[in-house]
Specification:
This protein is an alpha+beta fold and 54 residues long. It has one domain. 43% of the residues lie in helices and 19% in strands. Strands 2-1-3 form a three-stranded antiparallel beta sheet, covered by helices on one side. The chain is globular and about 30 Å long. The chain binds zinc ion (ZN). Zinc ion (ZN) is lined by residues 7, 12, 14, 16, 33, 37-38. InterPro entries: DUF1059 (IPR009409). This is DUF1059 domain-containing protein.
């Protein structure tokens, strides 16, 4: 099952969203995006918590 994460669903005013079959890959994308666009440090657990199964 692919996972989905959207910044807007996390309460952020941002159009970033991602859908990916590979959770580990998605954690990387979320961490990179959070750091570069939101100046936020997101742990692996936090990134996983943001994901929803589509
Ligand atoms: Zn964002």
């Amino acid at each position: 099952m692919p996972k989905h994460m959207a910044c807007r669903e996390q309460g952020m005013d941002c159009d970033f969203e991602i859908t990916d079959e590979h959770e580990a890959e998605m954690v990387d994308f979320i961490q990179i995006h959070a750091r570069s666009q939101h100046d936020m440090s997101v742990s692996e657990d936090e990134a996983r918590d943001m994901m929803e199964t589509t």
